[in-house]
Specification:
553 residues; alpha+beta; Methylamine Dehydrogenase, Chain H; four-stranded antiparallel beta sheet; 31% strand; globular
Length: 553
Amino acid sequence: MNTQISITTDTAPRLLSAAFNQDQGCFTISYENGFRVYNTDPMELNVKREWDLRPATATATTATSTSTSTSINNKTTNTTTTSNNTTSSPPENHSREAGGGIGLAQMLHRTNYLALVGGGRNPKFPQNKVVIWDDLKRRPALSLEFLSPVLNVLLSRTHIVVVLTAKVHVFAFSSPPVRIASYETADNPHGVAVLANNVLAFPSRLDGQIQIVNLDSHSSSSSSSSSTTTNDRSRSPSSRSVSPGISPPPPPPPPQYGSNLVTIIRAHKGPIRCLALNSSGSVIASASEMGTIIRLHSTRNTALLHEYRRGLDRAIIYSMAFSPGLGPGAPLRLAVLSDKNTLHVFDATNVVGGAVVASQAATAIISQNNNNNNNTISSSSLSSSPSSSSIISNSPRTQPAGLINASSSASNSSSPQSNNNTNTNNLVGSFFSAAAAAASSAVSTNRRHLLGKLPLMPRYFYSEWSFVSARVEGQAGVLGWPSDDAVVIIWTDSCKWEKYVVVEKEPPASSNNNNNNNNNNNNNNNNTNDTPHENQFELLREAWRGFEGISHD
C-alpha cells in the first residue's frame, strides 16, 4: 500500500495498491482518483468508483458489465440500517471535497461494504482515517480516526482491524464501532497483518516474533459482559442482507483453541516481512526481511510444522498466499512472490494434514489421561489438577513421541489402569504414525538436494525447495488463488493482472517407455526424496491483462 503524497507531473491515475477479498474470488485496486472491484477469474470489472481530481466536482460511475446497483455481487441489495454515529459528510457534500485518491480499499467478502483509506497526490480521505464505505448508498457508513497514518485494514463480518506503524487496533463491527483491544508491535512500516477465520496474526513487539490473537474469544467475552454491545452488533453491517431474500451465510465455526487469547510464535531472527494464513486460520506462513526461509507454524500450539527455502540470496518477499484447499482431496499450496522475478509454489498438503492428525492425537492423549486420573485420584486432589486446555497451552514443543513415552511411563506406574493406558497409547500411537507418514510423504513432493540423504551434512542440504516455479516480469505484486491450481498476480509495479496455472507434465509418448517405466517403478521407492518432481509439474502463464486508464509510474 502506498499512502505517501508524491510530486509528479503525470496526468494518468497512478495505481497505489491492490488487495484480494476473503475468499480470493474478487480483488480491488486503488488509484489516484478512485477504486475498482474485479472478479478474479475470469477477470471482469464489477464496480468502478471515480472522483474527479478537481476540487469542485465529483463523479461516480458503474462498470457497464454490471447492473445499476452498487452491490459487488451484481445483485440488488436491500439495506435499511444506517449508522447514526459517523463523522463523514452526507453524499451531497462529498462533491466539495478536494481530490479522490484512494490508497487502500479492502472488501468485506462480496457485500457492498469496503474499507477505504485516502492516498496519492490528492487523497479523498485523510490518511489517518478509515472509512467504511457503503457502496449501495455511495456514502460512508462508519469512520475511525487515528493519530498516525493507517497502513492496513482487515475486515471480517464481526471485526475491523486497523494496522498502524507500531500498533494494531481491533474494533467490533458495530454502530458505533467498539474498540475491543489494542496491541503494541515492533516497527511495522509495511502494515504486515493477516486475518482468516477470526484468527489475527501480526508482528509482536520483538523482531522475528508473531502474535496470534483469537478474535472469537474476544467476541464471546465482550458479548457476555455487556448487553449493549450485543444490541449494537445486531445492527452491524455484517448482519445485513446481501441479496433480496437471502441473508449472508453465517461465519464458519471457530477453531478450537486453548484458554489463552494471545499466543507468541518465535519464527525468525530478523523482522517479519510477510505473513499468510490458510483459510481455516490453523497454519501461518512467515518470512523475515532476509527472505531466504519460509516457515510454517501451527496457530493452535505454535509448533513448527515445516520449513521451506526460497533461495540463498537476500530477497524482499512481497506476497504469500495459500490456495483454498477446501474440497475433499484438494491440495494445499503456498505461493511466494519476491523481488527476484520468481514465483515459487510449495506443496503443503500433507504437512498441514499431518499437523491436524497430530493435534487430534494430542487431544486424545490428554483427554484419556484426564479420564484415567479421574478414576484413580481422590476428589480432594481434583481441584489442583490443571485443565486440558492449560496443559496444551503450557506444554513445550516436544515431539509427539515424547507425549507417548510420557503417557506410557505413567501407565506403567499405575497398575490398575495399565491395560486401559496401554490400549490408549496404542490407539494414539497409530494417530502419530499416520502423522509421521504424512510428513514424510510431504517431503517427497517438493524438491530436495541429492546430498540430503547423507548424515552430518550442513543444514542447507536438508532444505526443501518449491516443487514448481516460474520467471516473472514484475517484482511488486499481490497473490491470490481463485482455485487450487491457478494463482493470480496483481502487479502494482506494472499495473496488470496475470494468471498462472500449475499443470502436470505428460510423459513423452514412445514405444521404449514401457520398458523404462517398469524399471522406474522398481526404483521409485529409492528416489522419492530426490528431484524428479521438478520435471513432473510446470507453472504456465495462461492469461494477462492490463488495467485500462491507469498508470504504474
